[in-house]
Structures are given as structure tokens and as C-alpha cells.
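From the methods appendix. Each design record in this collection lists the discretized structure first, followed by the designed amino acid sequence. Records were kept in a plain field format so they could be parsed without special tools. The example shown here is representative of the layout used throughout.

RECORD:
C-ALPHA CELLS (129 positions):
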């Protein structure tokens, strides 16, 4: 998340920030796991040992996404007030997109759909057709 935060400070659009997170987060993690001959063991080991750390990472990511929602919606609006739920939707959907993804292209396509859904939901200029 430190690498994501560093790039986010240089970006202003929600679209770019989502792309950055997807590239440095889920897509990068997918690449790492897929390049390992012990991918299944790696995933099982991390899930078993790092449960508490994974919860903390999720909390941190959700807080960052909540701040993004606040930055891209009018203060006090329904969407602004739903920022915690929208943040959780972005994070959990992006992390779960890798499940049963046949390849990186499928994962990237899922993340593109998620990005377009978020941009449309928040009614950003990038999300308008």
C-alpha cells in the first residue's frame, strides 16, 4: 500500500488511482502467485499465518478507499455517507476478482468492469459515457 500511496499523491483522478491500485495490488499479487511453482502452498500458508495482518491491511485499504470516495463525492450526499460500504465493495471485489480467473487477462477484465462500475456509481467525469 505504501507504493500505491506514493503514486496516488501524484494523481488526481479516481480512474488513475483505481488503475494504480489494481496494477500494484491484485494484478501484481496475481503475477507473484502465478510465477511461483508452489502457488497453492504459498496462498494456504499466507492465509493460515497472516490472518491478523490481512485484516489490518484490509482496514488500511478500506480507509484509503473511503477517503477517495469522500474526495470524489459531495460532502453529506448519500454516496459520501456510504463511503465505508463503497470502500469495502471496491477492496473486497478487487481482491476476490482473482478467484477462478483463468488468466491475467480475465482478472484485468474483471477489474476494468469494477472500475467502470465505481466511476459510474460515483458519477465521476471518467464514468460518464
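DESIGN:
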Amino acid at each position: 500500500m505504501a507504493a500505491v500511496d506514493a503514486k496516488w499523491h501524484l494523481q488526481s483522478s479516481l480512474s488513475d488511482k483505481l488503475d494504480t491500485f489494481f496494477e500494484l495490488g491484485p494484478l501484481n499479487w496475481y503475477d507473484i502467485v502465478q510465477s511461483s511453482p508452489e502457488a497453492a502452498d504459498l496462498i494456504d500458508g499466507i492465509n493460515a499465518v497472516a490472518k491478523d495482518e490481512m485484516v489490518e491491511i484490509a482496514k488500511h485499504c478500506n480507509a484509503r478507499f473511503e477517503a477517495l470516495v469522500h474526495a470524489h463525492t459531495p460532502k453529506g450526499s448519500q454516496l459520501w455517507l456510504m463511503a465505508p460500504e463503497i470502500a469495502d465493495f471496491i477492496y473486497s471485489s478487487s481482491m476476490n476478482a482473482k478467484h477462478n480467473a483463468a488468466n491475467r487477462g480475465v482478472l484485468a477484465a474483471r477489474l476494468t468492469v469494477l472500475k467502470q462500475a465505481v466511476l459510474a456509481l460515483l458519477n465521476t467525469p471518467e464514468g460518464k459515457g
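APPENDIX NOTE: The chain has a mean pLDDT of 88.
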